[in-house]
Amino acid sequence: MKIKGLRWWIIGLIMAITIINYLDRGTLNYMWVTNIEYKVGGSEVDGNYAVLMEDGKSYKLYNTNGSEVIKEASSLAFKDNNGTVINKEGIAYDLGIVDRSLSAEDFTKEAKNMLGTITIFFMIAYGISQMFSGKLYDRIGTRKGFTFSVLIWGVADALTSLASGRFSLIAFRMMLGLGEAGPWPGTTKSNAEWFPQKERAFAQGLFGAAASIGSILAPVIILMLYLSLGWKLTFVVVGSLGLIWIIPWLIINKKGPKEHPWITEKEKKYIIEGQPEAKLDETKDKGKSWKELLSNKKNYSVILGRFFLDPIWWMFVTFLPMYLVDQFNLNIMELASAAWIPYVGAMIGSVFGGWISGFMIKKGKTVNFSRKFAIVLGCVIIVPAVIASVMATSAFVAVILMALVLGGFQITMTNIQTIPSDLHSGKSVGSLAGIGGASAVLGTIIAILFSGYIENWNLLFSLLAALAPLSLLSIFLTVGKIEAIEK
What's this model's pTM, rounded to 2 decimal places? Predict the structure, then answer.
């Protein structure tokens, strides 16, 4: 049996697991704190409804999932002339991680800082995994590497349903981070194996677009599951998706393009002839050590470029739900309707960023010019879009402008993530991508720690505008000409 375009099946499967990856990591952020509305004096036909108790000081809240809870009026917010009450719910409340008795302002601050703390532990595990995942994927290959990563993070997300407090929650999120980091260096390596050089940025763009699609779907799917099943079963359902994905992955991704029994001779020839490193003897390629990689100035274009740029993405992924809830007082349905919009921009930016550099290469421009053009273009979009977004007075305008921010981010990031395969070949590609991923995590941890000292949301997000030019400057000062590094 022969399959035309087998390389697109491989990147398609990677896109699918990347979508699942972002559903898994979004579970905590979207269920951390939610605003649930209840119609006062309503009934089952109204969905969630509230009934004033005889004491006149508390309400009994009825959820569509059948649960009931009594809340004092002082702990609820009112809108529509007391016709609707808003109850703050979510994991932070249910596990007693944040004190319910705090004022609204103090609660937001505490919830934000605690979510930041949990995210930092996730990022520590994620960063460690980034470093070693690159080496692991170089050693055991992408087929086994992806399987190993997905098993860890799928089980971790499902087990989070058993969390009973902050310590168990941190432990499960760290386990999630250990697994979820693998596909980033893994995809860079897989694209270097399965695509000719002129298509690699586009393939990397599809991978980035999948991350954006996962972020688009996350608020809708997770919040709908939360309303229907509660947060515990939501973790189980979402965590199981990756485990199911492993089956088609192992069936389709049998071997690399040189040995795969289902690849056509035409496609095999097209891939191999378009790979500058194809002439190398892979049996003699032991890959460069971390010391060798760190001793070459060019490699710091990836390391420093990602150190400064990645925090932009992670600050949105971590705090966007809380920002929209707190800044614009969105309820859970309004959040689900708005939080996906910025990631549409990210999806478009991912595909366009990969396409534009590949298009320029096909038209005769050098890899060096094409990659740098795309990287600059993305940064030029980010800075004014960030500044405009924090000045927005409505949630709709804010998320539209944030779509431009993340679109510019992905144009730049897609091309930075392709640089390892431009500079290296074989077993060194995943290793450099892994080091770059670890540096990105370090930058993100520093940014989240710094965010704990900034209580104003607009100031926090506006400071992200400075990271794009810092990333751009670090790339241009280190990489020189983007071309293969001679051994």
Answer: 0.79
